[in-house]
Amino acid sequence: MIKNKVKPAPGHLLLSEPFMPDPNFKRTVIMLCEHLEDGGTVGFILNKSLNVKVCDALVDFDAVTNDLFYGGPVAKDTLHYLHRYGDIIEDSLHIADDVYWGGNFEQIGELLRDGTLDSKNIKFFLGYSGWSPGQLDDELTDNAWIVTKAKSDYIFDSANKELWKKVLKDLGGEYTQIVNYPEDPSLN
Long-range contact list for 141-144, CB < 8 A, 24+ apart? Predict the structure, then answer.
């Protein structure tokens, strides 16, 4: 496997190695929103739709026909969101470029209902992906993840099912070979 050159940080992506056996993270792309050396790490899986629309899962979000996403195996009863509206949504945390995490939920609902916000620029997640202090570093040492900087179009504009392959292709070089690896190495 290719050695990581980029260190994890908010605004970076984790791409699972091609043969990761954990079904929670198989061929996933995770947006890191928090990474503390003496704390933990928090992120959201960008390419695992729950095959449920936000409007079917949340009261008063009838206009939001976006897919609801599986953010990860931690606290699967919690709702999180990434968006491009940091200058409008109170208490949003800037993550990278034009990507923000969280903020005032009631305000988001109101602004979506009145048409001020475009739901294409918000992505909702159930649960999150989390690592305890040192855990992600250990997994990086074991080459379980590839780390790269995020682009907002990966989050909001890319086809979810092809995102893992798209990011690897965009990295170029030796990463483009990984795109065609079979999910089961015994099939090679």
Answer: 143/1, 143/2, 143/3, 143/4, 143/17, 144/16, 144/17, 144/20
Pick the closest to residue 50 from 81, 71, 30, 77 (CA basis). Answer: 71
- Supply the CATH classification number for the domain 12-187: 3.40.1740.10
The rounded distance, in Å, linking the Cα atoms of 40 and 164 is 24
Tell me the pLDDT of the chain (188 aa) as tens digits.
556 678 999 999 999 999 998 999 999 999 999 999 888 999 999 999 999 999 999 988 988 999 999 999 999 999 999 999 998 999 999 999 899 999 999 999 999 999 999 999 999 999 999 999 999 999 999 999 999 999 989 999 877 889 999 999 999 998 988 888 877 666 65
CA within 13 Å, CB half, 152 = 15
Question: Which CA distances in Å does 184 have to 2, 57, 75, 149?
Answer: 18, 34, 29, 27
CA 76, CA 128: separation in Å to the nearest integer?
Answer: 7
**Exposure on the CB side of residue 154, measured as CA atoms within 13 A:** 30
CB 104 within 8 A of CB 157: no
Answering whether pTM is above 0.70, one says yes
Every domain of the chain and the residues it spans: 12-187
